[in-house]
Design goal:
By secondary structure, the protein is mainly alpha-helical. The protein has helices at residues 2-26, 28-44. Helix 1 packs across helix 2 (28-44). The radius of gyration is 16 Å and the shape is elongated.
Length: 45
């Protein structure tokens, strides 16, 4: 039972780490904004 709980916790951590990426995949407008910001930042470097 403990092993199952550990697996759940690890899955939750992985989910939290990937949630930002998932929200970008779900939200194209947010993705475009991020790309625009990254492009501008890269241009200023």
């Amino acid at each position: 039972m403990q092993a199952l709980n550990d697996t759940k916790l690890r899955s939750l951590e992985t989910f939290k780490n990937q949630r930002g990426l998932v929200s970008i995949l779900i939200n194209p407008e947010q993705a475009r904004r991020l790309i625009q910001v990254l492009t501008e930042w890269h241009t200023y470097q």
